[in-house]
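Our collaborator T.R. sent over the components below with a one-line note: 'Predict the complex.' Nothing else. No constraints on interfaces, no templates requested, no preferences about which chain binds where. So this is a plain run: every listed entity goes in together, and whatever single assembly comes back becomes the starting point for the next discussion.
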Amino acid sequence: MKSLAVTTDHQLEIVEIPDPVIGEDCVLCKTISCGVCNGTDTKILHGTFKGFNTYPCLIGHEAIGEVIEVGKKVKQWKIGDHITLPYLEVGPDGKYAGYYSGWSAYSEYTVARDWQAMAELGNGPGTPGFWEGYYTQKVLPKDIDPVYGAMVNTLREVLNACKTFGFGSGQSIVIFGAGPVGLTFTTFAKLLGVKSITVTDILEEKRDEALKAGADHFINGSKEDVITEARKIYPNGADHVLDAVGINSIINTAMHIVKDFGQICVYGISPTLGMELNWADAPYNWSLKFLQFPNKVDEAAAHDQIINWVRMGVIDLKDYVSHIIPFEKILDAFAMVERKEPCKKIVIKY
Amino acid sequence: MKSLAVTTDHQLEIVEIPDPVIGEDCVLCKTISCGVCNGTDTKILHGTFKGFNTYPCLIGHEAIGEVIEVGKKVKQWKIGDHITLPYLEVGPDGKYAGYYSGWSAYSEYTVARDWQAMAELGNGPGTPGFWEGYYTQKVLPKDIDPVYGAMVNTLREVLNACKTFGFGSGQSIVIFGAGPVGLTFTTFAKLLGVKSITVTDILEEKRDEALKAGADHFINGSKEDVITEARKIYPNGADHVLDAVGINSIINTAMHIVKDFGQICVYGISPTLGMELNWADAPYNWSLKFLQFPNKVDEAAAHDQIINWVRMGVIDLKDYVSHIIPFEKILDAFAMVERKEPCKKIVIKY
Amino acid sequence: MKSLAVTTDHQLEIVEIPDPVIGEDCVLCKTISCGVCNGTDTKILHGTFKGFNTYPCLIGHEAIGEVIEVGKKVKQWKIGDHITLPYLEVGPDGKYAGYYSGWSAYSEYTVARDWQAMAELGNGPGTPGFWEGYYTQKVLPKDIDPVYGAMVNTLREVLNACKTFGFGSGQSIVIFGAGPVGLTFTTFAKLLGVKSITVTDILEEKRDEALKAGADHFINGSKEDVITEARKIYPNGADHVLDAVGINSIINTAMHIVKDFGQICVYGISPTLGMELNWADAPYNWSLKFLQFPNKVDEAAAHDQIINWVRMGVIDLKDYVSHIIPFEKILDAFAMVERKEPCKKIVIKY
Amino acid sequence: MKSLAVTTDHQLEIVEIPDPVIGEDCVLCKTISCGVCNGTDTKILHGTFKGFNTYPCLIGHEAIGEVIEVGKKVKQWKIGDHITLPYLEVGPDGKYAGYYSGWSAYSEYTVARDWQAMAELGNGPGTPGFWEGYYTQKVLPKDIDPVYGAMVNTLREVLNACKTFGFGSGQSIVIFGAGPVGLTFTTFAKLLGVKSITVTDILEEKRDEALKAGADHFINGSKEDVITEARKIYPNGADHVLDAVGINSIINTAMHIVKDFGQICVYGISPTLGMELNWADAPYNWSLKFLQFPNKVDEAAAHDQIINWVRMGVIDLKDYVSHIIPFEKILDAFAMVERKEPCKKIVIKY
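Returned assembly:
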């Protein structure tokens, strides 16, 4: 089968590798779609993903697969099921066909493991190697388009982040960045009952998108002083200030905006890992919370609510996807990302 | 002005009473609309409202009013604002123009009090007479129709109840009653991420409505054994069983359905106040939670989320209202309720 | 080895049964001590334990055992460790040597299973038969006397109940019953920061014990009207009313005492399972919470705090134990319980 | 009366100022005792207290006063009551007798305000100037010595911090600093059920004190590598790492010790306000929480539990106090602090 590798000299390459052979606790999936992740995928590509340093590797981690073969111990899935987040697993040498794992989900065939079947085989919760990520491999209902359905993987993460950050009734939030992630946070925070949201971005054309997504206010950071404007809206400061971009200096700005006992939330991953902070800019009591690799148990818990919202028409997956590109042209898709062309989610279709 | 009274012999009567004179901490409202509450209004009418025994009284408690006069200490409201939950307040004798208070909100003019202005006058939080209900008097944004807006008062209560009962991700709920209240609970529980909802009612025609509202399963209680069917769906029992009707025997049935450490939630108010319970039917660990008069601080906290949902198109207030009836015909509206004609919310328009 | 059986005609009998043979995931324990449980043990004896109907059976469930043999997969325990809550496990026929299980912990030898070793053998969390009770089998530190240490099993349950009921800062609690359970609740609630505790009992001699245990007030229920006196102390009602006795009529009394949005907590198990309740006596909003078989995950979570309290001198296990009786005289111990002789915990010593 | 001032050139001076005249909502207190706060007091003295820059000022904020005069609106206090946290209030010019307020509690006479009486006078919750600090002015029971009782003010703060940081069952904590604050955190965390505590300090003589206070492990930071040793004890990292000293570099060290989804808690106040952080040292998900000026509502909520612990003998206030110094010698007390002589709390007695 074909897959997408990052070489040791940080180039993308479509490679031919053997099809996966599944264990008794696994299902084999024909990959239907896989979302391109501007964050993790490109960081692995460029060698800037914190804590990751093994190349060549296979990448991709936002797939939907259709079950085409079922291991005999598996109980929760059957032939034809659409599954979220299938992967490829590595062997004892840490590799799959000579490649390290960057989750490998761009492969034409992928695998999901039934955690309950794992438990019966002695590899379940409580055993050394058990990975909670298996909890996130869940059935995508058939009435949801499995190509756009790749978006469910991302939306679960953002909803989980909203809950981990504690967004809720009566609160005020200032969100830095009106890209796809920032706007999704805007919509979800509003659905969760947040009272007032201000989005700030340096592009004026983001104003309408932000307001449409649910923002109450927009600050154009290229024309206005964000601290001054945010303080006009929230004289006592905002309950939360969210970095949905991943630029360290946002934290310094946010310290001037967050209220006493408020929280600065960092979801974006800065490519620069060190920074100078000045506590004098912040209130007496505040938190800085980094959420950069979601807890898989919590992410799994967000599945139902996203599925409910999609089925009830509260959110439309198509609103979050700008391009559907066949796997054959996946290098074009990445080229587009590299050129930083404005887009929402790109989904690779198989 | 005109208002709606319940006489000492439990008859409804449109009466003429003086217009309210407001204090410095109040706004005078021209009543725009007021929802008919099948629960409280009719119980007061029939003398079966627990703890209420003072007649004649004025009723109504789901109004929207437009501010037409502003007390000089008031800060949070201005002329033209639409306000949720205005009332009439009684004098030192506990009456308004000779009538006791059943909240009196069917009156043509009503009053809201600014709790912050109250505080500055020495009547705020911490003083003996302070009523937290003032927190629920909030601005209804102008882009929401103020006639259908009366529904916001009800929806806040139901959303608050969902949160007080603790409905959330991964849970299963069995809801007794597919009337307007039961269906609203169904939709809201689903929006809050509940995994599986079963609605049961004795009318087959409620099946489609329940499924449309978000139910995953429907049990026709007149044809099927509810306990048996519910246990098929939830072999270990349901996390929550909700009485959205107000019939004591539902609690006895629910004991057979609720799971260990589960909760029976009583939102409907039974006209019969005593009952026989048999612990043997329930699991070892369970709760019975009565929520029959919402905490006003919590109800106020639900305001933002309902407003957000309305403005984002998640819910449509028109879906919850079946009749808009002019105040002149309010007795016809109540006659309809007395005949138990199938309907959703009736809103009285002024 | 010897063990204690309840015969089919509900008699206690010391019986001779084979020693346990342990699996790879188990440790064999020499039983050191086992607390007598006036609740569960005597209910099983008399055939009134809800949901239990299989005789003859072996009883006892509050043991401490010393590890004398270690299964080869076991990691968390070693020879000589003192373990809380060892049991005997039944075979595929649901029996051990012909006896059903009432937890069987009065046996001279008992067994604990390492849940992590179970997981590696395919019987861990997520598999059908997994029992969370294994989490409660924890090491009792060597500096705690293992005879009095049997009390740790009970105290964990009560502390867990306090947390499940939500006892905490600023609250008021009325506790029915100044027996060992009621007094332990009194002390623990006070340690958890509860502001005011009133204990009521029908014996005047309990007054001093209650005050010493941490009560702020005592009501003698045989001389004073409990509702009247409790309402004098808490004019708006109490946050919690706890039945630490297990008499249905306490719930009816409690309804008059609990405040709006308060909770009636039932920890004692009434031998009579049905009762008549009158909602009219209660406030609009209230809960009735039954906790009669603790959640084992939560009970395990209480272990550390009890151990800390014992080691820091906050509580003295000896204060909770009135009799230490050798296993040979266990029938005398039960006779004493049957005669309802006033006592605290009886611990059987091996 | 006499009081303690910090002059514009940052010198301490005993000054003579007029006695306070109380309002209707206040009580006048004869100051009994006041704790010396090595943190705030000395920072104000040296001009390094974040956000404070008004001199000359009066300092002291850990007093106990005995009520000697009661304003006519006051309800919660009476003559003879011992009150926690009385202050002096400034006039409209922000001063008391020409001095700005550093809380002024070293004065011979101090004042407490009854927040409920304030509410009735129109200055309660909801009014612009209302200060939640009034909630912390509570009665110290007469059976607690009011000189040592000054310690209650401090202990409430630390207990509140433990709860705000979320210390509880099953957790592991590494505490930097075995001074009085660090040791109090150690004891309180243990009382709250924390499973394992490691204390680190650079003085070997702190080892025994730390273990006695409840620590499970001690690392001598002057002889051992703290990161290496802490990782040996907690291979996956610690749930919480607490800076109880106030040195920025502790945060950098803590990043290597905190587990994924763990929290670095900063209670000590660093005199240096800026620092360089390197995200690369931390896990993917973590929080940095600064608590440097407690929320007064929460601090008040900790009062009951501290009082309970003192009265039940769980903690002995005398263990926390090393010196009781008469007010006449208060300058000697501060000289001792300046010399950094090893000591626990110094209490000034009037």
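Summary for T.R.: Chain B has ten helices and 18 strands.
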